[in-house]
Give the backbone structure.
Amino acid sequence: MRTVYPKGTTLYKPDRCANGYTILWQRPAVVKLIDMNGRTVREWDASAGEATPRIDRARLLDNGNVLVLHGGMMSDDGGIQEYDWDGNLVWEFLPEGGVPHPNLLGPHHDVFRAPNGHTLTICREAVPPEHMARVRDPRYQGITLYGDAILEIAPDGSVVWEWHGYEHLDLNHYRILASPGWHAGPFNSTECDWMHTNTVQALPENRWSDAGDERFRPGNVMISPRSLDTVYLIDRANGEVVWSYTGDYMGGLSGQHEPHMIPKGLPGEGNVLIFDNGASPWKDLGHAGRSYALEIDPTTKEVVWKYENGEQFHSSYTSSAQRLVNGNTLICESAGARVFEVTREGEIVWEYVEGTPRAYRYPRDHCPQTAALGDPTGVPVTPPKDLRIAPDRPLD
């Protein structure tokens, strides 16, 4: 392990960047917003309320509030909280406050605020015995198979829509790493994390829907079950899966995170951006140990842009990718404890070193509070060509 490591903003070319403010978080309960030079401009202590303090996700809303998801993968005491700009807890959803089924565990991995003010989240749940009867593989018979449910929560805390993976997905679709006992922690030889969904998004307005493709109707729900190496799109009206993507680039998706449709007004609008982790060592050796940021045309499933850097770019867990207003892409390489902005040509124009599971960039005018902070454009940072450290005195 290194004992000397540069932290903060280690590279910055202001004229090449989509300058703004970046949100990141450190566990257990600190969320902060930084400027381009890495200075903290706002910090939230997200430990209020009854939810476990561990943060899985934080998003800055357009009213200046921060939406926070607490809870681990098998947590039964997680929850969703919303804090205002001044750090006051203004809204909270806990499992005891409205989860409609007693076998659901607390929210985990993601929370998404839809345009209608409702909130989407993921809850882990055991597949009921009557559905387990469909399982053919003897390795998965007689154990607890965990899937996920997607909940839509109204501002008053009521659950107004729900979707259960075991009702719509093939219970005999596994990847090798999902065999019993594969996951550390609470899972053991009698439990299996079948889905491990890590992302949920309601589709924004998009050109495919405008052209009449009903699969991509705004409000349809995109999810990312990491254990299945697949991204699914759910028709919100009937719950059916209307689109899926496993990919074929370098052997296909491998433990992916953060698939989402690029909103209107951004370069690549309507395409799907995915952080492909390269997490499965059983896949093609050209993929294992290498990560990719992939931009997909969802109608043809072709890769229209990608960022890769061989074995120099790899995060086997968490991480994210986000398209920025100037066409650059913000990438969080969680395992490498760095966030960087890269051009379409592959040039890194901003880099920030500090551990965070994911990171998101917001423009100056994202909300009144960020606009009041002033121009986020800061001072250039040029890394030294020679990073050797001189001794305290001349050597003999």
About this structure: The longest helix spans residues 368-372.
